[in-house]
Each structure stands twice: as structure tokens, then as C-alpha cells.
TrEMBL record:
Residues 160-342 form the Transposase IS4-like domain. Pfam families: DDE_Tnp_1, Nterm_IS4. It comes from Actinacidiphila bryophytorum. The lineage of its organism: Bacteria, Bacillati, Actinomycetota, Actinomycetes, Kitasatosporales. This is Transposase. InterPro entries: RNaseH-like_sf, Transpos_IS4, Transposase_11, Transposases_IS4_N.
Amino acid sequence: MAQFVTGGTDDVFAPGHIGELTQVIPPELVDAVLDESRARERRLRSLPSRVEVYFVLALGLYGHLGTGLVWGKLVAGLTAKVPQPSEKALRDLRRRVGVAPFKRLFDVLAGPLAQPSTPGVRYRRWRTVAFDGCGSLNVPDHERNRSWLGRTERRHGPAGYPRLMLMTLCETGTRGLIPAVFGSASKGETDYAHDLVGHLTPDMLLLADRAFDSNDLLADIAAQGAQFLIRATSTRRPPVLALLPDGSYLTRIGGLALRVIEAEIHSRTADGRDIGGTYRLLTTLSDHRTDPADHLVRLYHERWEIEITYLALRHTLLKGRVLRSKDPVGLNQEMWGLLTLYQALRSVMVTAVETVPGCDPDRAGFTAALEAARDTVVSLIGTTAASGPSDRPDLVGHIGARVLHALLPERRMRLSARIVKCGTSRYNIWNRDERSRVTTPVTAIEITVHPPALPSAQDPTRALSGRWGQVCRLLAANSNQAMHTRDIARHLGLPTSGRPLSSLTAQLCYWARNDRLIRTAPSTYKITLPDTLTPPPSA
């Protein structure tokens, strides 16, 4: 990286730095993205565009300070004669440069950070990634922001601030960002997820929560060649095509051949509590010999690493504060600057940890890296080039040294209480599973894989209940011949017109889309049932 110029007309570029992180985001890169987005100044100004890029990044680094004080941090360690702009001049500078350079800068830095041999970043030959949404980013309550984001409705009325929905695809081992999108919360996480699927590659294994098990999204993920392990909603009942020795089974959903794992997980805590729940996981990893069911259930726990990503962004970097900008353009610029800054910090942390053999990146503390980065802005540590050609670049640096000095202990098993200290929050009063109100160590985790309950000849109604069971028994009683919707309704004692028929038609269509029924003609269906449900031929 070039040294800062401390004399002559080039003094205006002296504030163009962000401490040691300038080695990750060098001036040459900033100039390139400014040229590419046509945002560079046409004449030499007292506040060039390059300086504005670093200034917006510094706004994210010092989110608790006003713009004037942030500028003071950038110039505090400089000996050059630099301008002292007003806050209005700094605002005008932000408007002049716009959003495109920051979006492009994030695109350059985004992507997996760890080497293939780094501990904790891969499952077998796949790099584990996860995506999820963060809908708790508050923005200033200004009419221009409300026109874009709208009002957030809560149980007790609209929220005090409009909220921004952030959706990212994260490398779970390092918590680095691969892509990111954001916008109005009214669009929904599933819609934003479709925008991220194109960044999946065949060497990735996607972990996702039960909000992302729609047939279209599963098909899009599979089309990218990536593997996935996604929790299914409790209402999904995939058909059992083949039972595997480890208790999982093969199925077919939306044209995809998948494997289903149904498991009961119980966590026993040090205070004697037993907290548990049922998980139904969908995966493309169909071989039970190479990928046992209990191994995949434990791997799914890595999905929570993306929540640590949002913890660092929302609470460590922003300290829960409302964003600065009062218009959509400013919000876009501010968000891409925050994401770029976050990715730069993560890259420095991962580089430092990889110098320690066998060290897992999740032991690197984000708070230690952030405070060290702030110190280098004022002291100018790491902002100038090496003094001689024989000097080797320091892969660790000041930030990395602080991170390695304050490595976190090995990951402990513990149960965190889901509670918000707010009178209007539902988590303030809901505690259905009777979790502890404080973080409690976990002494043991018990995983029990439950094979599906298959129907038996002695009691064919045991596993088939409700409307689905009635339809199954009806088709079995008719030797599984295709039947029209009206004939099914008549045999079930339902009206053959009006809303009851429409409701039955919708159910049959839904089961057909999920490969539980076979549609042989318009409004005509049949089903493939186990032999135990098919009536024996008459003598």
C-alpha cells in the first residue's frame, strides 16, 4: 500500500484511510470501484471521492459518534494540513458519491474466507453455509424511509421505527458473508432467499431453518448443484418410499429425491431441566452409511452460527442503535458500508487465526477485533507501506495480534434463554418449554431418531388419520383406481358443489404437488399405497 502524502496539493487524500483495515481495502481498490461506477470527482476537490468512501466506512466503525467527531478520528494522527469540513459538506459528499461504489466494494470482498484445511468450516467435502433473515434493524422514522419500508405492525400497534430486512448467505465456520440483500420486511425471507440461491456452488452444503422448505426454493437450491440440510415445517408429511437402517427414510418432494430424518432432541442442563423438541430434516445426502442420521442432526446445529453473525452486526457493531440515514439512498449506502466493514474485519480475524495450527475461527472475538481496528484509525498503525524491500508483510498485524491474545475458550454446550426485557415483547411472557431465565450449561444432549409410523394390516388407521386417512382408505377400498374429485366427495359424505368441494379440491391439489397423490386427469387422482392397505382380492 502506498504511503500517505504529507505535503503539497495531495494533502486532500491523507484522510483516505481506515487504519490497519486499509490493507484489506487499499486505495487502489477504492479508486478502481470509483472508476467502474463513474463516481470519481472530475476535478481535484478538497474532499475527493476516495476520502468519502473511507469516511462512510468509518461511520460504521464509530456508529456511536456524530459525523464531525468521526472525521476528527480520521485526521487525528495526521501531520498533513487537511480540510475541516462542516457536517453539511460531509452530507453533500455522501450524496455526490452515491451507492454504487459501496455495493461494488462489498461484492469484491464478499465470499468464503477460510482455507479448505481450516478447522470447523467443512463437513466432509462440502463447505457449510447458512442463510437467514434479520428483521430488527431500525431506521429513522422519516417519511422518505416510511415510503420505502412502511410501518412495522406489532400486537400493540405499529412499531416506533420502520425496520429494514437484511438477508445474508453466511459461511458458518468463519461467519463471513458470501452475498447479502436487504429491503422492506413486507417482501419476506423466502423471497429474499431466492435472490441468494444463485451464489450457491456445488461445493457447498446449505443449512436452513424451517421457513425455507418450500418446494420451489428446494428445487432452486438443487439446481445450483449444492447439497442442503433444511428443517421442514411440522405440517409437512412427506410420503415414505424406503425406510433406511438408521431410522431415516427416502421420499420425493416436488420432483426431488430426498431423505427425511425425524429426531427427538433433549438437552439436559446443570439445573436439572430437560428441554427438548422434535426436528424433521430434509436433505439431499441420501446415503445413510456415509452420512448417519445422528451426525446430520448434530451438523444442523451449525445453522445457528448465522445468528452470531447478526449478533456482531446488530449488537456489537451498531450497539442496537438506529441507523443514521433519513432517506432510502442514504440507507443503501450506509448498509453496504456496514457490510463491507464487517467483511473486512472478519477477513483479518480469519487470517490471524489460520496462523495458529488447529485453531477454530469461532474462537476469534469480534469485539476484540473491532476495538483494535478503532485504535488503529487514530494511531495510524498499519496504514503505511513497509519501510524496505526486505521486510515481509505481517499476516497478523495489530488487529490480528489483539484477536490472538484474547482468543475465546473452546465452544461450551449451554442453553440460552429466549427472553426480551420489554413489556410488549411476546418473549417476555411466553416460556412454553420452561427454559431457564439465565444462560445454563448443558450437561448432556440426547438424540433419538424416530422411524416413521407405517400403517399395519392389523390397524390401518393408526398412521392415517383425518381427511388424508379417509382418502387413503377410500382409494384402497376401490383397488386404488383413479377417482374424480366429486366421486371422492360423495363417498366421504361431502357436498358435491360449493365451498366444501372447493376445499377438498385444494387439498387434493396440494397432496398431488407434494407427490402424495398421482393426478391422472383433470380433477382425477390415485395413490400408491403399501400392500398392507390394499384389500386382498376376493376369493
